[in-house]
Amino acid sequence: MPTPQSRPAFRHPFRRPALLAAACALSLTAGIAPLAQSSSAQEPPPSVDAGLADFFAPRLVTVDTSGLGEKERLQSLGLDLTEHAGRDYAEVVIHTAADLRTLVDNKLDYDVRIPDLIARDLQVRALDAAYGLRVGRSPLPSGRTSYRTSKDYNRDMRLLAKKHKKVVKRFKLPRPTLDGRDVYGVEIGKGVRKPNTGQPTFFLMGVHHAREWPSGELAMEFAIDLATSYGTNKRITRLLKKARVIVVPVVNEDGFNLSRTDGEYVDLRDLNDYDPLGGTGTILATPGRAYMRKNCRIVDGVDTPDATCKLLLATPGGFGAGVDLNRNYGGFWGGPGASELPVEPTYRGAEAFSEPETQNIRDLVRTRNVTMLISNHTFGNLILRPNGVNPTTVGSDGLPVGDSPDEKGLKQLGARMAAQNGFANIHGWQLYDTTGTTEDYSYNATGGFGYTFEIGPNEFHPPYEEVVDEYVGAGKYRGKGNRGAYLLALEHAADPTYSGTLKGKAPKGATLRLAKKFDSPTWESSFEDFVDTSITVPKSGRFSWVVNPSTRPVLAAKTIETPKAKPFKRQVDTEPLPAPTGSTDVEFVLPRKADILEVQLDWATPDDLDLEVYRQIGDRVVQVGTSGNAPGAKEQVTLTDAARGTYVLRVVNYASVAPDFTLTTEAFESVTRTTEGSIERYTLTCEKNGTVKARKKVLVDRGQVKRLDLRKACR
Ligand SMILES: [Zn+2]
To answer: Interface pTM (ipTM) of the complex?
Structure first.
């Protein structure tokens, strides 16, 4: 597995030390901590039951996961992991003293990256003010120099639609948020106020996660860019004639508003009961707000009175409430990489699509031919593509999930976009497993390509100048950036090579509708799902309709290797337990190549042993596999295409009191088989004045053009 990124340099994590120094000199308030401590000597962890008097500033830390099993251990702790992670580290938001204690108790080493996120927010605000003074207007299409608020987004969308009537339409998504806030988007394209006549959709979104402010900024800037470039920029004009762009800059409107507006500064004299400084502080942001991740679902299935979320967030630990919207989508909902516990950062919700915010997006995906989708997040400098789980993960059908059938195309487009923004182009699971994300749903339900962008190297909402650079491109990406990546995405959306095309003749003004009912798989079950898209036949009586393929990716044939029932060699070793932190080696000789070599480690107590597997090559041993699960879970290493030779199986006593352990090693030949795969058809109807005049089953693949003549049938 390629490492998505090199481990971050701890000493100079930020790009603009000179500017930061300037901001510190502004001395906005006492208590701005130094930006990043490069500490190998860790501070003593505060006591878990620290009262309000011992105010705990939320902080960003880099946890070292290079040790055996440490990544898995970290993921099992319910901490607030960021998307900035690699093979041997992950950055984590530590909200409370208890979070910190959890890290320490689990013997995970960490370095503090941002010791006080609240102070950092004050600093970012000062930097943005200084940046505004210095440049006046940024090179962004809007010229902005600081983050928008909810109000700013809504005003910008309203004005854009007013100023560019011919190409921009603002719309309200069908469901308000739990706090009763409206969610808006803009649709952009030639003739946007008239019915769609066959144009596919590129769907660009931001702010599923409340604190990820740049994700909305970049989406909004792209909308402004397109609208203002139409008619003057050749490439953009051509694209906006062929496709529509839907931009919903802020999906999680409640969360964003709390993070951006209320999270910025809070006069704690208004909240005296909760004032950690005992009423002496004048301004201080509450930790739960600026670094809120989820939505405002406090109790499953209950729409609590408006503003409850805000009150709760002002309490210690209040950031824990809410559903992680990017685990609540229906695609593989309930699988690995999402939590079933409401207090955890990746809480998936009570059921698939339980939240109004994800229902809003689902309904757009169902009713448009979304041939390309990007959901913006921060941070990590990553382009993530489906699937969200490791291909060897066995799904509820008992088969490995495998790569998506469009792996090649998804990877190629990812690489082209990465050449614009400089991000790493990887699978979702290479960061860590996820299920229930936006593209887990959209890609698997429609076949339209979908990606997650994790924007920026260091922070959830860095100084705004970095947002500007991310959009227009900086350094060797100058003139490219995420703008360049989005333009490629729009080109892809309009490219019939990846979509089906229905071409033909029908009575002018008739409605053509393409619909399909199916069951979308969650991890363990499925739910009734559909797509239903329509166009109006233009005056010419000729239509050309770019559509997603009729057969969903989940129905494609899969090639699967399964082990034969009986191993050709089996060895069972029971040995006394090594001393704590010590290890015991067991030898296994493999007489010939094995398609699958499986080593299982078992012991009697619910504590922690780890397993490392080495192969003897000449006089060296080379590690070929490890397993380090959380305490209580047993260990297993599976190697594919294991070469003949001698293997060393090392059992490490991480923290176990068992008297002995048992290693079972089995070598298998495998059988390769291809599952049958199936096809799916749309039902195409031709309607006049609401009456169905003609109905037809349509099978259409990627790149295929289907010709239809509906003139007679649809009279
Ligand atoms: Zn996110």
So the answer is: 0.98
